[in-house]
Structures are given as C-alpha cells and as structure tokens.
Amino acid sequence: MDKDKQKRLQASMNAINKKFGADTVTNVAEAVKQGKLDKKIIATPSLELNDALHCGGLGGIVELYGPNSSGKTSLAMDTIVEEQGKDPDFVAAWLETEASITPDILRDHGIDLSRLIFWQQEDVGSAESALDIARGFITAGDVDMLVVNSIAGLCPKVETQGDLEKQNMALTARLLSKFFRVANGLASKNKITMVFINQTRDNIGVMYGKLII
C-alpha cells in the first residue's frame, strides 16, 4: 500500500477509535487476532447435521423448521443436554409460545433444569413482551443459547387486543425483523446462539400443518 495513503487511513482510524473507543475499527487481520470474527459453535447430537452445516453445529441465528412432530424441539433440547454435559457453566434460555413443554419432557431428555431459564409468552401477555425479555438476556450476555419455541406461536399485541376476524398480515414477520435488527449484533458480540423453531404449512395463519375445513 502507498505509504501516504496508509498514514491517512491510520489517522482516520485513530480519530474514529478516539471518538468511539479503542479498536472500534481495525483491519481484518487484527480483528481476527482479537477474536472479533469468532463464532461460538454448538454441536448437535446429529453428526450428519453438524457435517451438513459445514461448521460443526449451530451458530449465530438458526431456524429449525419442518413438519409437525418432526423432531425440531427434541433436537433443540438434546443440543442443550450435549452442551450442559461438556460445559458446567453452559446456560440456555427458552421462550415457550406453544405451552407444549412440561418438566417431565425436559427431564426425560436429561436437561439440567437449574441451567435452563424459562418463560412463557402467555405469562407476559404478548410476543413483544416475550421478545423484550429475550433481548434482555442477549444484552446481558449471561446465556449461551436462546431457543424460541416457536415462531408460529408468537402472538403480537395487536392480535391479543384486536378482533379475531380481522386479518393482520405479516405482523410476526415485522416484529421479528425489528427484533433481529436489535439483537443480532448483541448476540454476535456476546457469542450467543439463537435458535428459532418453526413449522412448515400450506396456508397463512395456520399454527400446525394444513388448514382442513
């Protein structure tokens, strides 16, 4: 690189770092040394899935989707069990929107219940409040993994307070878009894996599978 250009670039970076904090901007080689590009990978119990993901497991933002009763929730729970066994400090957070999880189910999978933070959408009133709690844990950085079970069960405030016959298209999509804009960078910085469970369906507004009339 031209020496004069390098000096100007370094001066610009120094000014930015002075304003926003040390190492706010740096070259990629230095960022790699500092671990800024590292992602925490959480291996699943499925060797085939880990291999297919080309990174050895789940990392960043993950969506597990498929037909009803295809093992998505079980995979998430078994992944938590695997990590709890490897790391005594591993803590997961679980947002439940379907009221489908029981203590017996969690115990049967072998989860250490004392290292699983749990809250239900119905207890806080809406998807907005439930996701605000999730954002709080992500901001604090005290959990290693966040599971939302499921996207299909998220119920925005407009739906809880409005007319059930009124069509409110893409409310959940818009809500999640806002959530990801805030949470994605924080989760990456704090090395938190976010797992969102979803179902495939043929019709809008159906929580499980197909709509049969």
The CATH homologous superfamily name of the largest domain equals P-loop containing nucleotide triphosphate hydrolases
N→C terminal distance = 68 Å
Strands, count: 5
Q: State the domain count.
A: 2
Strand content: 5-15%
Which CATH top level class of the largest domain fits? Alpha Beta
Contiguous low-pLDDT stretches (5 residues minimum) are none
Q: How large, in whole angstroms, is the Cα Rg?
A: 21 Å
Q: Helix proportion of residues, in percent?
A: 40-55%
Shape: globular
Per CATH, what is the topology of the largest domain?
Rossmann fold
Q: Judging by the overall fold, what is the CATH architecture of the largest domain?
A: 3-Layer(aba) Sandwich
Structural class of the secondary elements?
alpha/beta
Oligomerization category of the chains in this entry: single chain
Explain how this protein is built:
The chain is of the alpha/beta class and 213 residues long. The chain has two domains: 1-38, no CATH class; 39-199, Rossmann fold (3-Layer(aba) Sandwich). The protein contains nine helices and five strands. Strands 1-5-4-2-3 form a five-stranded parallel beta sheet, sandwiched between helices. Helix 5 (103-109) links the parallel strand 2 (92-96) and strand 3 (116-120). Helix 7 packs parallel to helix 9. The longest helix is centred in the last third of the chain and has 19 residues, at 171-189. It starts with a helix and ends in a 14-residue tail after the last strand. The mean pLDDT is 90.
